Task: inverse folding
């Protein structure tokens, strides 16, 4: 297999998001997006024992025109939204929102976690939607770890497939455009040769550990490595216990306009999103105490 070369190495820099410190691997000053992937945040929600769940996490806010996806790395996240969904997903699980024409949601630590105190660690990924899907009816899926497709890539290397297909396996989410989103769990010394579809943009982000990426060198924690579209896949050898997320997808070749939590195709559509949000057309979310 001819390995792809690395186009960019993006260090996830610390930023403030609604008062929470998170690492932002995408976008950066170098790279605005790796279409269809728009944003990748890696961060934690600290909680003090005995505090109230509604004092922690991310309060209600809207989205339109893309899919905000949360992969829970540690702890438990309580999702509520304006569609009436309320669910808790723990470590290794995923919360997938197809925002479509509009949804309001919040993400808080679970009451059980807040009672004892601890840290919620997550990856938040924003995935663009094609224009034809931006005004779909919104929907939400809560996916515990045991509902993801488990694939043994090599001895000591397991993939949890969240969306898309790999060989004869399919993730529980059928995305609106062709893509793969997956977690890779690697033991020390494991070697993964991962094939990629030629037209897919692709990148990996390392949340823990490090290893050797063939043709590149050592890839480390908190790095997002964007590949060129010049090979059949990539080969990674884990030096220690490593977790990474894989992003691979067919680019969406359409104009894009964005403002805060809205991602559309034109500035007019952004203004319409603001108008609809202010008119409560995306629903209302009142969180229970």
Result:
């Amino acid at each position: 297999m001819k390995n792809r070369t690395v186009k960019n190495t993006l260090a996830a820099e610390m930023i403030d998001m609604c008062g929470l410190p998170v690492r932002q691997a995408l976008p950066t000053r170098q790279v605005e997006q790796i279409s269809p992937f728009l944003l990748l945040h890696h961060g934690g929600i600290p909680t003090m024992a005995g505090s109230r769940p509604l004092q922690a996490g991310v309060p209600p806010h809207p989205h339109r025109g893309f899919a905000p996806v949360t992969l829970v790395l540690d702890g438990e996240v309580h999702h509520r939204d304006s569609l009436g969904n309320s669910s808790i997903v723990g470590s290794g699980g995923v919360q997938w929102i197809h925002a479509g024409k509009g949804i309001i949601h919040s993400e808080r630590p679970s009451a059980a976690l807040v009672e004892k105190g601890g840290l919620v660690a997550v990856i938040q990924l924003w995935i663009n939607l094609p224009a034809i899907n931006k005004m779909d009816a919104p929907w939400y899926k809560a996916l515990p770890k045991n509902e993801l497709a488990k694939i043994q890539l090599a001895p000591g290397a397991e993939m949890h497939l969240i969306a898309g297909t790999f060989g004869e396996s399919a993730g529980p989410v059928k995305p609106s455009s062709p893509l793969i989103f997956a977690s890779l769990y690697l033991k020390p010394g494991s070697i993964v040769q991962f094939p990629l579809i030629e037209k897919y943009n692709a990148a990996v982000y390392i949340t823990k550990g490090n290893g050797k990426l063939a043709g590149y060198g050592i890839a480390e924690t908190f790095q997002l490595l964007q590949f060129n579209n010049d090979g059949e896949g990539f080969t990674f050898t884990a030096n220690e216990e490593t977790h990474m997320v894989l992003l691979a997808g067919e680019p969406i070749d359409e104009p894009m306009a964005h403002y805060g939590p809205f991602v559309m195709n034109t500035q007019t559509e952004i203004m319409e999103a603001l108008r609809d949000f202010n008119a409560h057309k995306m629903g209302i979310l009142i969180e229970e105490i």
